From TrEMBL:
A Pfam cross-reference name: PUA_4
GO molecular function, one term: rRNA (uridine-N3-)-methyltransferase activity
Family label: Belongs to the RNA methyltransferase RsmE family.
Protein name as it appears in the record: Ribosomal RNA small subunit methyltransferase E
Taxonomic source organism: Geobacter argillaceus
Coiled coil: none
Top-level taxonomic group: Bacteria
């Protein structure tokens, strides 16, 4: 029987004992109904994995003996970053959850010119903690050994100064000439991909021009205009299918 992979927040090192409490204890004891003696693969969220064996499991917690560290996993595709124009309501939480399941490497919301919600400074830390928790729970559910990196950018100008990416894509409903299908067919698998997606109402002409001048290629995914929470997940699934580990 194969070992279950479990993402945990505890510090992991060979020869030590990790005690899981709270939601992690509940997941192992109540959801998975694991027993004493069960062997697991424990992931630390940063890509490191260890063999573990349950020593004790009760209402106080789950005690796991940490064994050998496993060889580092090699990436199955490019590191994908989604720069998401801040959407309304709870749409970003859906994007975080499903994007994690689809293997996104990083998600960075940003305030586009047409973004309606604006977090007050005093609420940013709490919201980032909630986003981290959503990503961690989604990673645990789908068996990822890591979780995506999360950030927050003030505007598109900040996004355009972030990181070096092998391929830079801008999803834009106004693009008529460059289709995603042909672009992917003509492009060898890169090391990293960045995708900019606008909020409800899309990006302004000035934002599109700025992204193009920064090296982003505007592309269309077809005749239908997708909602902002659909567009990112759709292109993420396509990129993972063509260049990554999906399908």
């Amino acid at each position: 029987m194969s070992r279950r992979r479990i993402l945990v927040t505890a510090r992991l090192a060979p020869g030590t004992v990790a005690t899981l409490i709270g939601s992690e204890r509940h997941y192992l004891a109540t959801v998975l109904r694991l027993k004493t003696g069960t062997e697991l693969i424990l992931a630390d969220g940063a890509g490191r994995e260890f063999i573990g064996s349950i020593n004790r499991l009760d209402s106080d917690g789950v005690e796991i003996a940490i064994g050998d560290e496993l060889p580092a996993l090699q990436p199955d595709g490019p590191a994908i970053t989604i720069y998401q124009g801040m959407p309304k309501g709870e749409k970003l939480e859906l994007i975080l959850q499903k994007g994690t399941e689809l293997g996104v490497g990083s998600i960075v919301p940003f305030y586009a010119a047409r973004s309606v919600p604006r977090l007050r400074d005093e609420r940013i830390e709490g919201r980032l903690e909630r986003w981290e928790r959503i990503a961690r729970e989604a990673a645990r559910q789908c068996g990822r050994p890591d979780r995506p990196q999360l950030g927050l950018a003030r505007n598109l100008a900040d996004v355009l100064r972030m990181g070096e990416h092998s391929v830079k894509l801008l999803l834009w409903e106004g693009e008529k000439a460059v289709g995603l299908r042909q672009l992917l067919a003509d492009t060898p698998r890169p090391d990293s991909v960045a995708v900019i997606i606008g909020p409800e109402g899309g990006l302004t002409g000035e934002e599109v021009t700025a992204a193009r001048e920064a090296g982003y290629c505007s592309v269309t995914m077809g005749k239908r205009i997708l909602r902002t929470e659909t567009a990112g997940l759709a292109i993420l699934a396509i990129l993972q299918h063509v260049w990554g580990d999906l399908g």
